[in-house]
Design a protein that fits this description.
single chain, mainly alpha, two-stranded antiparallel sheet, 6 helices
Amino acid sequence: GSFDGFVEAVAIGVVSFNRYIHICWNKLYAKMFTKFNGILMCVGLWITSIAVSLGCFLAWGELVYDRKTRSCVWDRTSDFGLSLFFSLAGVSLPLCLISICYLCIYLFVRASRRRIGEGRAMPSESSGQKESMRLSRTLFIIFAVYVVCWTPYAVVVSADRYDTFPAEVHFIAILIAHVNSSLNFIVYGLTNPTFR
């Protein structure tokens, strides 16, 4: 269900932060993103994902077969708080983090181009920086696809507190959400020659 959406949102958020540091604070990048810190971040992602999933196994809700989405997900009808948590934590919070990172990248690149245009900076963009910008663009498109695909599901789950929406609405929303995973490889292939 939405556990995979949550995990994907957190992963996209971490990668967006990585790109933000690499582009906007390049001198800090090598210190922050060491091999050891990378391992810590991966372990942190696993722990976060497991902790979110444990809520359904310990006390806050349970996993059930949802007849409307035709999938095994948390029981969205038994505890609205859990549904709201997944909608906020899985879509809204990562959306804010990622939006801030990409807005900062955009403003940084725009200011850099302006300085180059005014002759206050040398246009010495290395191939590594160009590749980083290409990758950032690819990841932003991945993020945009994620938002477009998962937002309808988050809205439906949050809005249907009393389980009155037709089954078709829930089924279409979850179907669109899961299409996201199928689109990622297409986006990577079309936007980034390295991935191709």
